[in-house]
Give the backbone structure.
Amino acid sequence: MGSQEKLSAYLEKQAALEAAGTEGSACRQRIRQLLDEDSFVELDSLVTGRGLNFGFAREPVAGDGVVTGYGTIEGRMVYVAAQDASVYGGSVGQMHAEKISKAIDLANAAQVPFIGLYETGGARIDEGIIGLEGLGHVMASMNAASGEIPLLAGVFGPCAGGAAYLAALSDFVLMTKEKSGLFMNGPMVVSGVENKSIEAADIGGAAVHAGETGLASMVASDETDLIARLKLLLSYLPDSAEGFIYPRDSQDDPNRTDPRLDEIAARLDQGVDMREIIRSVMDIDTFLELSPDYASGVVTGLARLDGTTVGVLANAAARLDSRSADKAVQILQICERFRLPVITLTNAEGYEISLAAEKGGLLRDGALLMRAMLESSVPRLSLIVGKAIGTAYLTMSGKSCGTDMVYAWPTAEIAIVNADTAAHIIYRKEIAAAADPASARNEFVEKYASELASADVAAGLGHVDEVIRPAYSRLYLISALNMLTQAE
């Protein structure tokens, strides 16, 4: 075949692909929405499957059900792999898997983010072990890239079995409210074992992974919203673990004060939504909450502080539980991987008190959180707004456990146990002998709180760097962050 014939054959093949609708497939539309216009460069478009066709009569399809390549998002280079559910249900065969693995490896070599757009029926069973080994190669590539580059997953449909690991091994998992699904075993398998009909959404839908497992970082209303969230999330992340975070000029005054924080501090005994404090001290409209429906005892997310991306961890309940510890570990690991400073906002009496919690592994989970704090090597700032008691204090704000700078509001209570418990233990004889035990107890509680558990006492001992007016919290955090990041 001469040169002219080869060119003609190539053009005919491309025309046939377009006529078959592959150019207009959902996965390609997702890529177009995600990337800058005309920036996508496809790789391995002619790769076909190598299935054994056991029990199936499948014709090889160019691309083998996944589109891979690279492009830009707001000018930043990324690699992308998008599964095509119109080809064999998006099932993962050997070459399908090898294409994804190659894209991840190339992204890692280039030190740029990798984004997977997933929708798959699982492993291609007619390929047998070669398909399974291909899937193993993807997992190995993801493991090699983990902690090196951001791994983002957008889940657009059901993802079953080992193929669901493609999303689960990512740093961030985004799902749509109605269509997404991630599960080890699909509805037919689970229904058979449970001997009743169970829907896919009840096994691994967005609500399950947002509220029960904590796997879903965000839940989008639809595909367009999911892609917009992927792009927004990427804007907070560097290209790689040692990479440069593209600068975002802060639209917020670094010297801004907020008198509302004084009001919040004054009514702290009545309870507080920590999100109010987070939004006040961070740059306006930059707090991006992660897994908001999972483990409500803590609030986690990314934000910008004077234009710098930071991780945020705040207590939202009086006591930490196992799930809260797990969620806290997740944000600490993200910050450690990508060298993001951590800001903790502390208001916790300790850990959950119950037999079920102890039997459920509370000590193990609390220790894992402590280890994550101790192993953290990024700048860490803490703002104690209320209670910081016992191991909750050490975990969230302890300078001995790696916190670089600790600020406290005058409302802070910092002690080994809360004042009420301490007074009951230390002054139990005096309380029992008093003419009015209730009044005596209150007096001793106040005595312990002011003489041993106040922010001033902790500052006097050097465990708090400064007691600050709540309204000035943002100024102090920005100043400390600038100092610590320059030291880096």
User: Anything to note?
Assistant: Residues 38 and 114 are 18 Å apart (CA to CA). The mean pLDDT is 89. The longest helix spans residues 3-19.
